[in-house]
Design goal:
Length: about 210
């Protein structure tokens, strides 16, 4: 008697951990490690089976991913209220990019405006590319790219998005613009990859039947 059950101990530990993570995010809502850890915690809690009834287990399994996404959405929405928060907005955009691409793009734009380093913009472009939306990525990136002030990853993402959108000439323009970045060593580190990608895309255009010679 009086012995704490393993489940109760785990939940108590999760509560303490959650409180600590929330305190960290209160100070810095863009702390990637704290946000990911808290998102994993609420996602795990959301998918815990609420019943041992084998008849309802299959139905619960179907809704687990939806419940997990909803839990993370609620968390991100809560944290996005911070005036300097941009990482939670990226998560909201990621979760809504398929069903509400316009809303996701607005969230990405707001996140970008809150982050002068370009990190939020670069991650937004990656999310859009992963969703098969390179044209939307170009629209967002071109409107917010500040080559001399932001991380070179923004330029890299724009070059790759242009290639995926079959705009190889535009990709070369973005690569040329990237040369204006003050960190010449970082530019040199990505130049071979991007040049090779552009040349491969140009080669594909030449060898495609019916394409201009």
């Amino acid at each position: 008697m009086g012995t704490r059950r393993p489940t109760e101990t785990r939940r108590f530990g999760d509560t303490v951990h959650e409180d600590a993570l929330r305190a960290m995010l209160h100070d810095d809502p863009n702390d990637a490690r704290a946000f990911d850890a808290l998102a994993d915690l609420v996602r795990r809690r959301a998918v815990e089976p609420s019943t041992e009834d084998p008849l309802t287990a299959p139905e619960e399994e179907v809704h687990r991913q939806e419940a997990a996404d909803l839990a993370v959405w609620s968390l991100a929405e809560e944290l996005a209220g911070h005036p300097k928060a941009w990482r939670p907005l990226l998560e909201l955009g990621r979760l809504s990019v398929v069903e509400d691409p316009e809303g996701a793009s607005r969230r990405f734009a707001t996140a970008t405006e809150r982050d002068r380093t370009g990190g939020a913009l670069a991650e937004s472009l990656q999310i859009l590319r992963d969703a098969g939306m390179p044209v939307e990525a170009l629209g967002l990136g071109i409107g917010h790219w500040r080559v001399r002030e932001q991380t070179i990853e923004v330029g890299r993402q724009l070059v790759l998005a242009a290639i995926e959108a079959d705009r190889v000439f535009e990709a070369r323009q973005h690569l040329a613009t990237l040369e204006e970045h003050p960190d010449a060593d970082s530019v040199a580190s990505v130049r071979p990859e991007l040049t090779a990608a552009i040349e491969a895309a140009e080669g594909a255009d030449v060898t495609t039947p019916g394409s201009p010679g």
